[in-house]
Amino acid sequence: MIGKITSAVSKIGPGAGGNIPGHMVLKVGGDEALRQLASELKLGSVLVTGTNGKTTTTTLLIKLLSNDLQIRKSFENNTVNSITTSLLKQDGDLGVFEYGIRNTEFGIPDKVQRLVDPVGVVYTTISQEHTQVNGVKNPFLAYYHAKILLTQDMKRGVIVTNSDDPRTALIGINKQKDVKINYYGIAIDGIEDIFDEMPIRCPKCNEHELSYSKRFLNHRGLYECECGFKRPEPNVKLTNAEFGVDSWKLTIEGNVFNYHAKKEIPLNLELTVPPFGFHNIYNTLASITAYASYTPKTDRIEDTIYKIFNNLDMSFIPPGRFEVVNCNGKFIGLGQGDNGDALKINGLFMNQFIDGPLEFIYTTPDEYEDEIFADHFEVIRNLNPEHVIVVPGRKSVEKAEEYCNRIRKEFDNVDFYPLDYEKMDKRIDKLTQLATDSEYDYIIMSGCGEEQAMWEKIKRKIIDK
Ligand SMILES: [Zn+2]
């Protein structure tokens, strides 16, 4: 009741509403309130998690499922409060919620699983992100463990997970005895990662390095380990791709176990999509596999997928995420690239467009984030820009200058702009100006910075020019 009242109030007050109803319900009603609300969903809930790609995957999955039935949903703001608020304020028999698990929320994922009792969990990919706080060593294993906890006690439903990512694949393998797993992955030649191959430790034995026969994207590929762990065969796979300038043709085939029909559904698709970058192939596979797993309308799955994907334009990209904009003949690729994996993905996406000297406008990480800088520096090295501009992406200007000096050791043509974090408007104006006034035809502007508060605003300004 508290939630419904707060809900009504927050509809009146402009701005301040947000996730207050959910917050109030959890505060007053406790955990039991969330369990109660989640159990109202006749077809259950689906949670989408991972390091990168979860908002895009959730957005696509919502588009697909909304074609079949009314759903309750939340994305972008991926906390327990926002899940609770959506359950309260919306109607529908199925819930789709993006759920991000960060280091501050360790201990909660298993509780969320218990309370929400999802019929589905979708994993995108798992890699290092900003988890280093006040000099504490990046606790990647703890972060990975938190992602595992979300499904550890699941006893019903279907897990959708990336078979090409050894970390998400292992989660599937370990749960095979309890629930059904639908893996998705890539099965084509002709994709080449432009980055140096970093060693990846086996997530299963944590002893050996994985050996890869193919690398698709950073740590994703065809891998195996001496301990016997290897990439599972995907249920849904990309079997052919034609990469045109204006559109891509993707052939996707497989068999998906549908949770409601309790049977395998065959998929044979040939989709025409915008040239949306390699990482979005994974988001496409994840959302299609999840859709076929959780929709109750199993008789028109392919029709719905065609309807959504053949009419897709780039507006499905969430605010602030990397996009390449044609600005009066100049190709400017810009958007968030907080972690190493994200910046590599951006670099690969930009690489499709580069046909001449490149300028890299790099926004740095903060103090205690040397590991993220090391990953970022890999991307700068591999794209080999003619000119580098370094700007602090977070608070510390001093640390940004230190990162800049490390880049200067390997690159001759480097400029530093010590822009203040507190004066965000000024920083946004300057970054916009640097890109639009650049003498280069190919510019990549990425690194650290707030998605909406910074990147989305710069993007809008550049698109408007
Ligand atoms: Zn191993």
Instruction: Supply the helix-strand structural class.
Output: alpha/beta
CATH architecture of the largest domain: 3-Layer(aba) Sandwich
Q: Tell me the name of the CATH class of the largest domain.
A: Alpha Beta
Largest sheet composition: 9 strands, mixed
Number of helical regions: 15
- As a whole number of angstroms, the C-alpha radius of gyration is 22 Å
The termini sit apart by 49 Å
Shape: globular
Q: Count of DSSP E strands?
A: 17
Q: Assign the CATH topology of the largest domain.
A: UDP-N-acetylmuramoyl-L-alanine:D-glutamate ligase
> Mean pLDDT across all residues, rounded?
90
Taking pLDDT < 50 over at least 5 consecutive residues as the criterion, the unreliable ranges are 10-16
Description:
- This protein has 2 domains: 2-316, 3-Layer(aba) Sandwich (UDP-N-acetylmuramoyl-L-alanine:D-glutamate ligase); 323-464, Protein-Tyrosine Phosphatase, Chain A (Alpha-Beta Complex), CATH 3.90.190.20.
- Helix 1 runs antiparallel to helix 2, helix 2 (20-29) crosses helix 5 and helix 11 packs parallel to helix 12 (370-383).
- The longest helix has 16 residues, at 279-294.
- Helices cover 38% and strands 23% of the residues.
- The strands form 3 sheets. The protein has a 9-stranded mixed beta sheet, with helices on both faces.
- It is globular and about 60 Å long.
- It contains 15 helices and 17 strands.
- It has 465 residues and is an alpha/beta fold.
- Zinc ion (ZN) binds at residues 202, 204-205, 208, 225, 227, 229.
